[in-house]
Design a protein that fits this description.
Helix content: 25-40%
Largest sheet: 6 strands, parallel
Number of domains: 2
Number of helices: 15
Distance between the termini: 22 Å
CATH class of the largest domain: Alpha Beta
CATH topology of the largest domain: Rossmann fold
Strand order of the largest sheet: 2-1-3-4-5-6
Shape: globular
Oligomer: single chain
Strand content: 15-25%
Number of strands: 12
Radius of gyration: 21 Å
Order of helices and strands: EHHEHEHEHEHEEHHEEHEHEHEHHHH
Structural class: alpha/beta
Length: 337
């Protein structure tokens, strides 16, 4: 098959992890994956799909297009797929206007209803899409390549280094989480936070090691820490997040402490791959347990790395995508919807 993915930007994190990561696996299975930026001009949107009539499958990755653009694309392509990894029908956790957005909701319904197949990053997202595409939704988690991450050593540095990785936009969540991190800093001797990002924040009572994000250095910087941390607000937008940073930590063999929201409880099995914590006291306890027991960190980190290899690796995601493409080759899928 010739598969064309239309993405917001070829260097966008969603494209890198949810589309480009599978290029080699597609090629090995005899499929050609072509990645192109979505048109943004009026002329480009009017012409959308005209040069894709010979593509077997066209994937719209995450972007909610106007309904009239979706209708044009639907008429011009053989098979249409929508892939998404966020609660895109809502505004995000930090919007002053609240979560509900009628325009986003209409556009989401339009592209999902028009698609021959919808690929969702988790069950929460799949359930939302399933209202408009019954029988045509498949879950493919966001995936990472474990081989790209060195295994965390867990020894050799005094104290305990937590790590948080993300883009500047994720700092809004970190800022909300600052009081808890400050409590950890006051309670656990020698603890510090490595912040891998393009911008940085100060956290009272907790030393912050500023580490400028780089695609070539990210994996090694994560693996050089001791514990991965992730926190998201408990709200409708965050329940749609796919836990990329947690998967990165686990691929590097780090145990993880996270709050039990969205996919976190699925990825962080309490006492097996890390600890789930809600209150500041629970966070302090979880970090303190890791600080006191290097063997525990190694055991939980190894379990997380195995989990990624089995369920959230590029190989696992590619297998799910290839199965979906096989389904698309059959006319029964569209009829079943």
């Amino acid at each position: 098959m010739r598969v064309v993915a239309l993405v917001e930007a070829v260097d966008h994190v969603c494209c890198r992890y949810r589309v480009a990561a599978f290029r080699a696996a597609f090629a090995a299975a005899g499929h050609l994956l072509d990645i192109r930026p979505l048109p943004t001009s009026l002329f480009g949107r009017l012409a959308i799909g005209r040069d894709l009539t010979d593509a077997d499958v066209v994937v719209v990755q995450r972007k909610l297009l106007p309904e009239w653009v979706v209708a044009r694309l639907r008429r011009r392509v053989r098979r249409l797929v929508f892939d998404f990894d966020d609660a895109v029908w809502l505004r995000d956790s930090y919007s002053a206007k609240g979560f509900d957005d009628p325009q986003r909701a209409r556009r989401f319904r339009a592209v999902v209803s028009a698609s021959d197949l919808v690929v969702a990053g988790n069950d929460y997202l799949a359930a939302a899409a399933g209202r408009f595409a019954p029988g045509r939704v498949r879950v493919v988690p966001t995936c990472v390549e474990p081989a790209a991450y060195p295994v965390a050593a867990g020894v050799g540095r005094p104290g305990l280094q937590l790590v948080w990785v993300g883009s500047g936009s994720t700092l809004r969540g970190l800022e909300r989480f600052t009081p808890t991190l400050s409590a950890v800093g006051r309670a656990v001797p020698g603890v510090r936070l490595k912040l891998i990002c393009d911008r940085f924040v100060k956290i009272p009572d907790l030393l912050v090691d500023e580490c400028v994000w780089g695609e070539d250095t990210e994996a090694a910087e994560i693996a050089a820490a001791d514990i991965g941390v992730s926190w998201v607000p408990d709200d409708p937008w965050s329940r749609g997040k796919c836990g990329l940073k947690v998967l990165q930590y686990q691929a590097a063999g780090l145990p993880v402490v996270a709050n039990p929201v969205g996919v976190h409880p699925e990825l962080v099995r309490d006492g097996e791959t890390g600890f789930l914590a809600t209150s500041a006291a629970e966070w302090v306890s979880a970090v303190a347990r890791h600080a006191a027991d290097i063997g525990l960190r190694r055991r939980l980190g190894a379990a997380g790395r195995r989990q990624v290899g089995e369920r959230y690796s590029v190989a696992a995601g590619a297998a799910a995508w290839l199965a979906a493409l096989d389904e698309l080759a059959s006319p029964r899928l569209r009829k079943s919807g």
